[in-house]
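chain below, 109 aa
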Amino acid sequence: MNSEIQQFKTEFFKALAHPMRIRILELLSEGEKNVNELQAILGSEGSAVSQQLAVLRAKNVVASVKEGTTVIYSLRDPLIKDLLAVAKQIFDNHLVNAISLLEGMRSES
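prediction:
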């Protein structure tokens, strides 16, 4: 069971391991969007956005629902929004530590 969880985590984090995919997830954290909306916000070509959505869909990170000719995307699990917030907090903590280190080095000079 433990190795299955580790494998799931590995595959899950691989799905997140691209800047555009992270940005797509951030946007979907705000609410459902279709490809055209994502393209407009990201300023990217449809094929690039569609490729990244396909990866997220294949890893069950996002859900899609077809409404007529439009596909609407959403987060499969709302906890992804919390995960992104925690990642930002970790980044902020690293940044604060780096700033403190720099300030300490400057005061020693």
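The CA atoms of residues 37 and 72 lie 10 Å apart. The mean pLDDT is 92.
thats it, cya
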